[in-house]
Automatic annotation (TrEMBL):
Belongs to the TGF-beta family. GO terms for biological process: cell differentiation; gonad development. Coiled coil: none annotated. It comes from Sphaeramia orbicularis. This is TGF-beta family profile domain-containing protein. It comes from the Eukaryota. The keyword Oxidoreductase does not apply. Residues 232-342 form the TGF-beta family profile domain. SMART domains: TGFB (SM00204). PANTHER family: MUELLERIAN-INHIBITING FACTOR. Pfam families: AMH_N, TGF_beta.
Amino acid sequence: DCNNDKYNIDDSTCWIIIKTRTDSVLFLFFICFVFFLDCVHFSRNPVHTTDRKSIRGKRSPEMEDFLTCFNLFLRSPASHGSFLCELRRFLADVLPRPDSPPISLDSLHSLPPLTIGPSSSESLLAGLMNSSAPTVFSFSGGPSMFQVHRGELALPPALLEELSQRLEQMATHTMEAMKEEEGADRATRSLDRLHSLCVFPKAEPAAGERQYRAFLLLKALQTVARSYEVQRALRATRADHDRPPRSNVCSLRSLTVSLERYLVGPNTAAINNCHGACAFPMLNGNNHAVLLNSHIEGGNVGERAPCCVPVAYEGLEVVDLNEHGTYLTIKPDMVAKECGCR
């Protein structure tokens, strides 16, 4: 207690003592946590005695990520790298994690990449802000990108005001939606920190880096909101006792797949799928499917029956952040939107 007269310590000296003690506690916690992560890693990945020398000094990818983000936070909690680390952790906490093997994004067909930066056109940025397509964020260079990546935007005043308003609305909407989810307290604190690093000053124009962070956070929250809507719809369907939980009618079902590593978030994509029967009366079937079904019901069982398949898609937006800048790639026909019998 620095206000206690028996210590006779001035305020500046007191602040130094408190900061020194706080840093010591944080450092001790850091050492203990690193030791804990190492124990967990080796308990899950036992190493033979003769192999221990060959792995000495090596760290798991998860440990490298943690150390990079922890060092960034200690040096500058408000830095761009700290923001990206916090964004990744937030998305990892709130988005679903499937058990399926990861799929490499490089194996998918893509449109030519577009650069996201001060020279980006107003129409491109406005279109992305209003897009409903899900977004994932990729670090093609791994955790080292947190330390070297830089990003800025130069939005015109009207678009900057729209970005600010949409971000406030989406942040409020996401806060309300998270109250119904598990782990809401941690996710809420994380979103508060992210939002504080994006708020535009009222007395002067927002810096290019803050515009960039606000843009990334808006795209991330749009994806989170979409994921929550899907999960709520699934829970409502399960809770509806008036109809079977898995109707046999051809319809759209939720499907989340795992993507490759080095994704800030989400490292998953909700691509959906179609399930159900295509018997009469046929739902959303074209003329070919209707005639084919009648032909088969007439006794011609050797033909392929109509199948429940996606008939409308939307793309997936991939934001790639690397040492050269920020690039947007569209993966077309990635997410199923509508089903039909074909």
